[in-house]
């Protein structure tokens, strides 16, 4: 039975949402330990082992990662350490206690050449350092811990930290026009919905394996931006669609990375919101914060 839960990367988007989840009535029976690098360096295997043993951790939710996709291309060593090596350390530590780990991964493990939503068992083929290191992290975790759950997600945003939604809101107020790619297709994920799904998985009981989670629906970065501005009441900025080739970046991104969520819905009885109402909820909170 899961009693003590370690949440790493607690200052990030998902980590902050997991802190909010811990305060909900349905989750108060668990003891949570929230750490970021100041409290626990996940690249230090000895420190992890000591923490997990001292606090008798039963479940680790690893929300920590190197997530700057473009900077990953020139920070390969650090990206590998945080996204591949560290998850392996966490998985080994919890496996010694016969516990479980929930490792958050990414749609970037796929190359984006598909035209129908990706299922969990389809071949992976990352086309960036970020995607490659996250895939290796999945493999390290699965190899080390029999009770591991991998959750691949995509286009994550929240009211915490830096993300696409907050950037487009800021730029929409600062600029007369914005160029946004229209030929990359996927699904935004509200970090609060993902945190709620993770909490539901813990309450349900771990069924090991790889799962996909994003909000429902499909959009492009261009249409996503237009919707952000509409909901936020930004009408002074013209959003212009451009091809990916017109906006070169250090990292190659998948052109199509829609994830099939059938498995996680059927296994855990999770219902998933469409991306637009979830986006509206997040923007409402951001506007209320001023």
CATH architecture: 3-Layer(aba) Sandwich
- Distance N terminus to C terminus? 42 Å
Mean pLDDT: 97
CATH superfamily: NAD(P)-binding Rossmann-like Domain
Q: Which spans of ≥5 residues are poorly predicted at pLDDT below 50? A: none
Class by SSE composition: alpha/beta
User: What is Rg?
Assistant: 19 Å
Order of helices and strands: EHEHEHHEHEEHEEEHEEHEHH
What is the CATH fold-level name? Rossmann fold
Shape: globular
Summarize the main sheet.
Answer: 6 strands, parallel
- Number of domains as seen in the coordinates: 1
Strands of the biggest beta sheet: in what spatial order? 2-1-3-4-5-10
Name of the top-level CATH class: Alpha Beta
Strand content: 15-25%
SS field, number of helical segments: 10
Q: What is the helical fraction, as a range of percent? A: 40-55%
Would you report the number of β strands? 12
Q: Please, could you describe this protein's structure?
A:
The protein is an alpha/beta fold and 290 residues long. It has a single domain, classed as 3-Layer(aba) Sandwich (Rossmann fold), CATH 3.40.50. It is built from 10 helices and 12 strands. A 6-stranded parallel beta sheet has the order 2-1-3-4-5-10, with helices on both faces. The longest helix is centred in the first third of the chain and has 21 residues, at 76-96. The protein is globular. The mean pLDDT is 97.
């Amino acid at each position: 039975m899961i009693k003590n839960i370690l949440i790493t990367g607690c200052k990030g988007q998902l980590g902050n949402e997991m802190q909010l989840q811990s305060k909900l009535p349905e989750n108060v029976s668990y003891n949570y330990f929230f750490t970021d690098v100041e409290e626990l360096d996940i690249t230090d295997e000895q420190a992890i082992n000591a923490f997990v043993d001292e606090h008798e951790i039963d479940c680790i939710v690893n929300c920590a990662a190197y997530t700057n996709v473009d900077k990953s291309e020139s920070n390969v060593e650090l990206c590998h350490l945080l996204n591949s090596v560290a998850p392996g350390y966490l998985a080994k530590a919890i496996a010694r206690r016969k516990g479980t780990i929930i490792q958050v991964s990414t749609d970037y493990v796929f190359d984006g050449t598909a035209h129908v939503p990706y299922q969990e068992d389809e071949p992976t083929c990352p086309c960036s350092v970020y995607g490659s290191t996250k895939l290796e992290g999945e493999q390290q975790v699965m190899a080390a811990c029999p009770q591991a759950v991998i959750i691949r997600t995509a286009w994550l945003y929240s009211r915490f930290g830096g993300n696409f939604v907050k950037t487009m809101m800021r730029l929409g107020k600062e600029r007369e026009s914005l160029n946004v790619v229209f030929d990359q297709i996927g699904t935004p994920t509200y970090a609060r919905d993902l945190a709620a799904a993770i909490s539901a998985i813990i309450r349900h009981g771990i069924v090991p394996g790889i799962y996909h989670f994003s909000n429902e629906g499909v959009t492009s970065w261009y249409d996503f931006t237009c919707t952000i501005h509409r909901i936020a009441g930004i009408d002074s900025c013209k959003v212009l669609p451009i091809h990916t080739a017109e906006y070169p970046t250090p990292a190659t991104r998948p052109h199509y990375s829609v994830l099939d969520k059938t498995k996680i819905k059927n296994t855990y009885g999770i219902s998933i919101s469409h991306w637009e109402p979830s986006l509206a909820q997040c923007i409402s909170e951001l506007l209320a914060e001023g």
